[in-house]
Amino acid sequence: MKRALFACSLVAAAAAPAAADEVDAPQRITLEEAVDAATTGNFQVALGNEQVRGAESRVRKTKTYRLPSLGIKANVFLWDSEIPLEVAGMQLGVIREQVTGSAEVSIVQPITTAIVLGKLIKLEEAGVTASRAELDVTKLDLGYQAAEAYLGALQLGTLREIAATSVAQLEANLELVRKLRAADVLSDLDVLRLEASRDQAIQQALEAESGAETAERGLALLLGLPDGTDLELVELEDATPELGWTEDEAVELAQRQRPEARVAAAHSTQADLGIEVARAAYLPSVVAIASYTHAFNAGQLGSADSAFVGLSLEWNLWDWGSRKEDIAQARSASRQASLYEGFVDDQLSFDVRAKWLKASTARKTLDVSKTGLKASEEAYRLQQVRFTQGAVTATEVIDAEAEVARGRSQATIARYQYLIAWMAVVRAVGDMPHLAP
User: Where are the domains of the chain?
Assistant: First the structure.
């Protein structure tokens, strides 16, 4: 309930009109809140919930077949004339009135239906299981998409900050270079090179700004928020969880709890039960009937009230092989469902192993990028000291600063790419995306 209320509050706050002299404050949202909002407020979840309700309704309907049905039938007829009862020219009464009618109440209780009804109920219950598992698949997919979009937006926002820092550093160096040029220590070429690097960094900052804004808008769209909603994303504070599972452990966990496996198993159960239901067509249909009829204006020879109880049997003895082919189709559907269930099991194993390997590689890349960033930052610090002493050229300082900016960008990309890969592993084992192993 809290998740749904949070999603609704985001929409309501984003849609509320701002005062003429005020600017709407950005909507602050954490990674967990984004995942929750995506898995509660998305239309695909609402659609999946309706499909579950429909499947549950079919189960309840099937169970009603166990109970007797009660029916009422009534009629009124206006004849062209009455039929008198005459004997030797004398009218003794009326055989049929001009206006007649009757009302009938009947109760029908199926008997042979109970033989297959249990199988039919189990078939429909398997449909409910499949619908619920499919809804779980949808939620997991939406949760991962929200986490991926959130992390991607954070990555671009961090790159934007890195670009702005590079611009500030180049501006500071440019000011120093201009002073040294005024003192004839450096040449105009040194100034021009640094200005060109500064302008290039500004261009990168503008591109990063545009990319970050686009990513945040895409996240708002995924969460079902109105167009133009401004989001404030919460940084993850260097969260880099370990994988937590070995490759084989991840595969075993996925086989136990991935909803895709439950979907395939439920469809296989449905197909197997479909064979039993098809076979039931060979059985006769026997029902018990009780009926009471009251006739209006029945006449002298008619009876006003009548009732009976009895059995009714209907048996299709020959249909030129139609039922046989129905059973053959049901068996074929069962074999297909079994093959698909095996395929899903293999596909899940492959999916988990691929994502685990990708996350493992991303983790190693992250460690390497951290080492490289420390080295480039130390090299830049040393070049700055030597530059102020006149021991190196502006070009060497520019190159060192570029290496730092590149190292920071690579470390940022490596970090977020690992987090996205980690989220993919969490999704692959059947858990909702989160940061704790």
Answer: 2-16+24-68+111-284+321-428
Q: What is the C-alpha to C-alpha distance for residues 134 and 260, in angstroms, rounded to an integer?
A: 7
Q: Which two tokens stand for residue 274?
A: 């479909």
Q: Are 56 and 128 in contact (CB under 8 A)?
A: yes
Name residues whose C-beta falls within 8 Å of residue 112's C-beta, 6 or more positions apart in sequence.
283, 284, 285, 286
Q: Are 287 and 318 in contact (CB under 8 A)?
A: no
List, for residues 337-381, the tens digit of each pLDDT value: 999 999 999 999 999 999 999 999 999 998 888 888 888 888 878
**139-161 pLDDT tens trace:** 999 999 899 889 888 888 888 88
The Cα-based distances of 94 to 8, 85, 91, 296 in angstroms read 75, 5, 8, 13
What type of residue is 337?
A: A
* CATH 1.10.540.10 is right for the domain spanning 2-16+24-68+111-284+321-428: no
Biggest alpha carbon distance in the chain?
150
Backbone φ and ψ of 143, nearest 5°: -60, -45
> Taking the complete model, does pTM exceed 0.70, yes or no?
yes
Rg of the chain (C-alpha set) = 39
Q: Are 98 and 79 in contact (CB under 8 A)?
A: yes
Is 50 exceeded by the pLDDT of residue 23? Answer: no
Question: What is the DSSP pairing of strand 27-29 with strand 99-110?
Answer: unpaired
Structure tokens that stand for 210 in this block: 């545009």
By CB atoms closer than 10 A (0-12, 13-18, 19+), residue 95 is middle
CA distances from 149 to 84, 316, 416 (A): 89, 60, 11
